[in-house]
Amino acid sequence: VPLEHFLYVKKDLFKVFDSNSKFLEKGHSAAKLASKSKKEREFEEAKAKGIQGKPPPKQQSVRGKYVPPQWRAMLDFLKEKDFLPVIVFTFSRVKCEEYSASLTSLDLNAAREKSEVHIFIERSLSRLSPADRVLPQIVRLRDLLSRGIGV
């Protein structure tokens, strides 16, 4: 399957790299525009037409504060468009844990897939000692995998 890169912005997908790893400026610009508030877009359109005015206030920075991701909405969108499975990257182990914890009510596996995953997990965990099989990390990973979420 050719790898393509998309940005999910305000309930829409924007392709930013095609299957040949070519950057798509058009997709990036569209995603950037979609991420702006209505007032910001109106100001930029007026500015492009030569109309001067006061820019809208900048949004407050959220650096260092936890902002809950819209993972559920994104995954529902991807499921509706039949774009699953999907790989989502985060380069922070802590964020990976937080994001997966926010998906506790999500189940991406059908009954048949659940059975296959269960068999695979049990076979894999049989190599561990009984004490290791009940470690909190293992219990949590087992739950996530049974619902179709890997971390």
UniProtKB/TrEMBL annotation:
Gene3D superfamilies in the record: P-loop containing nucleotide triphosphate hydrolases (3.40.50.300)
TM segment ranges: none
Transit peptide recorded as keyword: no
GO cellular component: Ski complex
The keyword Hydrolase is assigned to this record: yes
Disordered as annotated region, ranges: 35-64
Segments of skewed composition (Basic and acidic residues): 37-48
Keywords: ATP-binding, Helicase, Hydrolase, Nucleotide-binding
Annotated GO biological process: nuclear-transcribed mRNA catabolic process, 3'-5' exonucleolytic nonsense-mediated decay
GO molecular function: ATP binding; helicase activity; hydrolase activity
Top-level taxon: Eukaryota
PANTHER family: ATP-DEPENDENT RNA AND DNA HELICASE, ATP-DEPENDENT RNA HELICASE SUPV3L1, MITOCHONDRIAL-RELATED
Protein name per its UniProtKB record: Uncharacterized protein
